[in-house]
Amino acid sequence: MSPCPTSRHDAANHGYIADKNLNRNRLRRFEGQVRGFDGMIDEERYCINILTQISAITKAVDSVALGRLDDRLRHCVLDAAAAGQQVSELTMAEGSDAIARLVRS
């Protein structure tokens, strides 16, 4: 994987770039699931089936988010640690903020 940037504004080296096609395929799957959910509402489907669809969408999105977080920890944090304390502290703070956003409901 590409090294992570030491700046939030350097998008050329984000680790997810290597998985761009995988991420786009997942996005298309989410879109299909959401369209399915919309269709279920239109068709006035049974509420348990709708909740099952919502659960599938939520799990799919959570899976991608956890994968990005794992990538961040495995690559970006390690790269930052090698770069020095100031970069490490910034990278850890960014990671902590990302975790906080993921767990907020």
UniProtKB/TrEMBL annotation:
Gene Ontology molecular function terms on file: DNA binding; metal ion binding
UniProt keyword terms in alphabetical order: Copper
Pfam families on file: Trns_repr_metal
GO term, biological process aspect, one: negative regulation of DNA-templated transcription
Transmembrane segments: none
Top-level taxon of origin: Bacteria
Protein family (similarity comment): Belongs to the CsoR family.
Protein name (database record): Metal-sensitive transcriptional regulator
